[in-house]
Write a structure and sequence with these properties.
Number of domains: 3
Radius of gyration: 25 Å
Number of strands: 14
CATH topology of the largest domain: Rossmann fold
Shape: elongated
Structural class: alpha/beta
Number of helices: 18
């Protein structure tokens, strides 16, 4: 290409920036595998590859951008130290690589941040300050500290060096599988997909780049439709790593030009995808990293007959949260169900109810028996049962068998 590509494209990052980032961070970042999943490929009738960024030292892709930004600092900036605001992956990426480079790092984390994430960030050598209710509050504090102490603020996504660093994922994909048809990327603030899109579209524009957001907070999808970054209301979602209220100015510009489509997935779909990755690939992937799989499993994107890479962006998930997510995934897949049944309040009725479940090979996890607080005829009682099942068809068989036995059944 003649001249600086940014002059014609009016974009903040070009392919040369991503290449330069690769040269800077090559010896500091793990080149994560891009593994073919035979099982997912068979079930989705496509060639499905998993780019396992959850295997990075700090458990996510975030350290790529952090390392590239830190490597571009002047000696004076290094001596003054850096500050960043984050509730998780960005914090750990900055802390780890700043410590390796001998740069003092101060991380502002929201007060609600789980202790395990605070401890991990401190373990990587950073000073942690807990301030604010959410990321926006923490970011405001970080900006103030940068101004007062002369530290360099390391933004998690809206920075050209950060975007270029994340784009090295795209370069690796081109080397590992140059014949890809599509790449599916989770979107939070947009740094990862923006960097990947630059690397891919300025090399092989034939390859489709798709983004996936949490349905509860579709910040980039909303902003692209509006033609500018706009704020979306805060909402709870399993995918807290991509729950960003307002995407970046720089990332929005790149995504608007290069990304082919953006789709959304809900929490139940994400939970099911986490469970699939755990069971099928033996990969622990956090909710945001499982969003690409949720999108293709639920038919949001056209992948049949194509070679598609899913960016499993991170694996930092609290074990207690993982336990709850696994349960939600089991419910979504019909492998765990709770139902209410009305039976006669007489000797043997509960035994007959349990016998039907046993004959249908249900594994009862919990059962409750309520006669005092139920609404219904005197002489009846309500049984609430939670059980492991084999899928939605099995649940239908259970309901049919109980109904045929004269037992009234209700599902949530």
């Amino acid at each position: 290409m003649a001249g600086d590509p940014r002059e014609s494209l009016e974009l903040p990052v070009c392919f040369a920036d991503v290449e330069a980032a690769r040269a800077r961070i090559r010896d500091s970042i793990y080149q994560s595998p891009c593994a073919l999943s035979a099982t997912l490929s068979r079930s989705l009738e496509a060639k499905v590859y998993l780019k396992l960024e959850n295997l990075q030292m700090t458990g996510s892709f975030k350290e790529r951008g952090a390392m590239n930004k830190l490597a571009t600092l002047t000696e004076a900036e290094r001596a003054a130290g850096v500050v960043a605001a984050s509730a998780g992956n960005h914090a750990q990426g900055v802390a780890y690589h700043a410590n390796r480079l001998g740069i003092d790092a101060l991380i502002v984390m929201p007060e609600y941040t789980p202790l395990i994430k605070v401890s991990s960030t401190r373990r990587y050598g950073a000073t942690v300050r807990l301030e604010g209710v959410g990321w926006d509050d923490a970011q405001a504090v970080a900006r103030r500290i940068a101004d007062e102490e002369g530290r360099t603020l390391i933004h998690p996504f809206d920075d050209a060096a950060i975007i270029a660093g994340q784009g090295t994922v795209g370069l690796e994909l081109l080397e590992q599988n140059p014949y890809l048809d599509a790449i599916v990327v989770p979107i939070g603030g947009g740094g990862l997909i923006a960097g990947i899109a630059v690397a891919i579209k300025e090399t092989n524009p034939r390859i489709k780049v798709y983004g996936v957001e949490a349905a509860a907070m579709p910040g980039m999808k909303t902003s692209v439709a509006a033609g500018k970054p706009v704020a979306v209301p805060a909402a709870r979602t399993l995918a807290d790593g991509i729950a960003v209220g307002r995407v970046g100015e720089l990332t929005h510009a790149i995504v608007s030009r290069y990304v082919d489509d953006i789709v959304t997935v809900d929490d139940e779909e994400i939970a099911s995808a986490i469970l699939t990755l755990l069971e099928v690939e033996k990969a622990v992937v956090e909710a945001s990293g499982a969003a690409p799989l949720a999108a293709i499993v639920n038919g949001r994107l056209p992948v049949a007959g194509r070679k598609v890479a899913l960016i499993c962006s991170g694996g930092n998930i609290d074990v207690t949260v993982l336990s709850r997510i696994i349960e939600r995934g089991l419910v979504k897949d019909g492998r765990m169900v709770r139902m209410w049944a009305t039976i006669a309040d007489s000797p043997g009725s509960l035994a007959r109810f349990a016998d039907i479940l046993a004959r249908l090979r249900c594994n009862v996890l919990e059962i409750g028996h309520d006669r005092a607080f139920m609404r219904g005829p005197v002489g009846t009682t309500r049984v609430t049962v939670t059980m492991e099942t084999r899928g939605h068809e099995h649940i239908e068989d259970i309901v049919s068998a109980l109904t045929d036995a004269g037992i009234e059944v209700h599902l949530p």
